[in-house]
Amino acid sequence: MATCTYTVPDKSASGDNFYGAVICNQAYVDYFWNTYGFSGNKAYWDDGWGWDDACNTSKPLARAFNGCYALTYSARDYQNDSYSSAILNWGRRYVRETIDDLRCFCGDGTAIARSKGSGLIEVYLGFFYTKDVPGRAETLIHESRHQGGKPHDANFPTGSTFGGGKSGADSSWNYEGAWMYGALYLWWYYAAGARTTSALRERARQRGNVVIDNAFATHPGFSI
């Protein structure tokens, strides 16, 4: 961690104060650690990343746990994670079933996270410090969709905030790729999210519309 430099943004705006008041419970810590790919990867989450300070929401691990809490408990009936339900319910299951190892690195600033294959996801400083809490849940779902066999298959459209003409977009909403999964999760979080705040739900709506407007070669034709 000594080689990383980061600034902690407003934790009220990001949701880290709200969720951080809940996650500092050993039952949650154990569940997240053993469920979402942290287990077996202590070496990556130690030495300043928060392994020995798991309630400190200025450090990466607690901020990751906040995202895991949102992913796990934002459906009112969160214990129902059937794939016949909404993604707000089954997103947790999809991540659980696709991520074997979740590892953190400083990164070079060009990516928030990357799917490396074989169940391995890497998350970088931007995941912790540019993403709000629902955005971290979105990222875990996005990268899990890559693990599920859906690479990006198109270039970003002209004028995209992600870089018009660059690779990394999905061709359409119906492709059901990583961008669609992430936006769909944010849509449901906004529309029906529980154990959250109206401000965070609105941030999820705004982020979802950024994805819809900028991450598909063919615009889906709707907004949240």
Write a concise synopsis of the structure shown.
This protein has 224 residues and is mainly α. The protein contains 10 helices and 5 strands; from the N terminus they run ααααααβββααββαα.
Major sheet: arrangement of strands = 1-3-2
The largest pleated sheet is described as: 3 strands, mixed
Mean pLDDT: 97
C-alpha geometry: globular
Number of helices: 10
Q: What string gives the helices and strands in order?
A: HHHHHHEEEHHEEHH
* Beta-strand share of residues: 5-15%
* Parts with pLDDT < 50 across at least 5 consecutive residues: none
Distance between the termini: 38 Å
Structural domain count: 1
Work out the radius of gyration: 16 Å
- Total beta strand runs: 5
Q: Structural class of the helices, strands and pairings?
A: mainly alpha
- Helicity range: 40-55%
Describe the structure.
- It is a single chain.
- With 224 residues, the chain is mainly α.
- The chain has one domain (11-214).
- The chain has helices at 11-14, 16-23, 26-35, 42-45, 60-73, 87-98, 125-129, 133-147, 178-192, 198-214; strands at 101-104, 113-117, 120-123, 154-155, 167-169.
- β2 (113-117) and β3 (120-123) form a beta hairpin.
- The longest helix is centred in the C-terminal third of the chain and has 17 residues, at 198-214.
- 43% of the residues are buried.
- The mean pLDDT is 97.
Summarize the SSE layout with pairings.
Elements: H1 11-14, H2 16-23, H3 26-35, H4 42-45, H5 60-73, H6 87-98, E1 101-104, E2 113-117, E3 120-123, H7 125-129, H8 133-147, E4 154-155, E5 167-169, H9 178-192, H10 198-214
Parallel strand pairs: 1-3
Antiparallel strand pairs: 2-3, 4-5
Helix pairs in contact: 2-5, 5-6, 5-8, 6-8, 8-9, 9-10
